[in-house]
Amino acid sequence: MHDSSLKKPIWAWFVLIGGLLFLIQFFPTIIITLVLLFRKPAELTSFSIIYMTMALCIVVVAVWAIKRALYALKTYNQVKKEQQQNFSEDSSKLITAELSKRKKPIWSWIVIGSGALLLISAGPGVIMLPIMPIFLVGMASDAGPPPAYVPFLILTIGYGFIVGYTILFIKAIKKIRE
């Protein structure tokens, strides 16, 4: 059970849960778009065909990733069962006692969960996340010339949040994998 080649596929759970939530959120949009395209054929243009093709490709990639995640989890569980059967009753009791003594911090799950909720709620708009501070600077300067420190402040705080959360996320993943 303590074989170094057997690692928990945490990525598979993220892909599985995130992919399913993405598909649940995206599925009604696909259905409505298909119905509207076939109900009003006059609005069927090359752009709508390109956008529909891109949407269907995203759905296909999400389904493919979910299938890979399920396969990885299934393989992990099979290997884990085989390893557990190889151990005697006494050694398995010692291992389970050792695992129950080890505590996992809750902060790491809070950091990961909040980021997952943000990504799921943003949907396709998550693509704009890296340029969001620049967009906000542009919007701040639309109403007239702002003071000189405002664009710098918006960029610093915006990218500070992004970099800070990325560092926290990486540390949380490392803490969970320990």
SSE map:
Blueprint: H1 10-39, H2 46-86, H3 89-101, H4 106-122, H5 132-140, H6 149-177
Helix pairs in contact: 1-2, 4-6, 5-6
Overview of this protein structure:
Helices cover 78% and strands 0% of the residues. The chain is built from six helices and no strands. α4 (106-122) crosses α6 (149-177). The two termini are 15 Å apart.
Which regions are unreliable across 5 or more consecutive residues at pLDDT < 50?
none
Q: Determine Rg (CA atoms, Å).
A: 23 Å
What integer is the average pLDDT?
81
| Order of H and E elements | HHHHHH
| Structural class by helix and strand composition | mainly alpha
Summarize the amount of helix as a percent range: over 70%
What is the percentage of strand-forming residues? under 5%
Spatial gap, N to C terminus = 15 Å
Main sheet characteristics: none
Count of individual helical segments = 6
Q: How is this structure best summarized?
A:
With 178 residues, the protein is an all-alpha fold. The chain has 6 helices and no strands.
Key traits:
single chain; 178 residues; mainly alpha; 78% helix; flat
